[in-house]
Structures are given as C-alpha cells and as structure tokens.
Amino acid sequence: MIKEFCAENLTQLFQLDSQSIKRVELCDNLAKGGTTPSYGTIKEANRYLHEKGISTTVMIRPRGGSFVYNDIELRVMEEDILRAAELESDALVLGLLTEENELDLDAIEQLLPATQDLPLVFHRAFDQIAQEEQKAALDQLIELGFSRILLHGSADDREILDNMDWLKELNDYAAGRIELVLAGGVTEDKIAKLQEKTGIQSFHGSQLK
After folding, report:
1. Which residues are in coiled coils (predicted)?
2. pLDDT by residue (tens digit) across 91-118?
C-alpha cells in the first residue's frame, strides 16, 4: 500500500511520518483543486523530503477552474515543468482536457518534451471524462507514458465509498498497466475498505498520516 500526502504548504511537511507516507504531492491553492506551487516551495520541499526518503510530485496547473488551457497557459506550464525538473522533483501532475471533457492529446504532446521523462500523473480531471470513455482514456494515457492516474470515481462530490464498483471495474481493466491512486475524501478510516473492495493499493489525501 502507498499513501501519498497532499501538501499545500511547507509547514505540513514537518508533521509527516516517513515510515507511513511514501510520497507527497506539492501544490498551492488546494481549495481550487491545487495549482503550481512557487519555485521556493518546490526547492525547499524537495530538499527536506528527499532527506527523509519521501518522493515528491509537483502539481503543474497555472490556475483553478477548468482544465482547458490556451497557448499562453501552455507556455507557462512548460516553463513550470522545466523548473520543477531542474529542482529534482520526482514526478509531475498534469490535467489537460478539451471543451468536450476529453483528453487534450495535442496539448499533452506539446508539453511532453519539457518533462524530460519524469514520471507523469494525470490529475483528478480524469473524473470529468464521461464514464463510458474512461477506459479508452486510460489506454491513451498509458500510450502517452503516464504512470499514474488520480481519481475519485465520479465528477461530483459524492462519498468515494459509493464509487467502489466503478473504481474496481477500472482497476480490473487497468490490470497493472498503470497505477490508479484514489483521491477526494480519502481518510485513514476508509483505506482498508477501499483497498478490499476495489483492489487499488494507492491513496492520496490531505488528511493521511
């Protein structure tokens, strides 16, 4: 089992148990679903967490709101990716969709060269893709080289335990080809049931410890 802590600021990092938390996602503006943290935050968090043996994943998202980005925003994301890689981040979180809530393949492919083969995680924007299209989207992300997908199982704020049947179906379909990471309302008391009912072994949240 892998537990990944979602950190909005450096203060939270000093409370983490490195025996329990194996990864940290660094972001800002968590109330908006997370945006790219500052250069200084990435630098100091990477230094501190790497000393503790905890890997880091950096959010690349220039603003809250939709996951449809224009050319200027894509250039900002490209620059942020380069800086995150320069600061020895271990992975990157990206989420790019079209107006129709499909994967924006052109935008993703535009950013791929800047990632320098760092492991890529697709943001919970995945939940906004129509359920009947999610298996095809999963296949596309694998082809693009993504190693993980953050997901809740639904685009609304319903209890994650209510999504277990679909999450299990997706995990069975993934068949170990890509790591699924449960997010959104994941707390310590839900992990055992989620793990048992879905088969998913990775969990993400700001309340994990």
Report:
1. none
2. 999 999 999 999 999 999 999 999 999 9
pLDDT for position 130: 98
Helical residues (DSSP H) of 70-187, grouped into ranges: 71-86, 105-115, 134-144, 164-174
Token digits of residue 55:
């890997």
**Cα separations in angstroms, 125 against 53, 98, 205, 209:** 29, 11, 16, 25
Distance, CA of 21 to CA of 54 (rounded, Å):
7
φ, ψ at 73 (rounded to 5°): -65, -35
Question: Tell me, what's the pLDDT at 31?
Answer: 87
Residue 164 CB contacts under 8 Å (≥ 6 apart), including other chains? 153, 193, 194, 197, 198
Residue 42 domain boundaries: 2-205
> What CATH number has the domain bearing residue 20?
3.20.20.380
Could you identify the residue written with the tokens 């200084």? 40
Return the SS3 of 17: coil
Look up the pTM and report it.
0.96
User: How does the average pLDDT of the chain come out, rounded?
Assistant: 96
**Number of domains into which the chain is organized:** 1
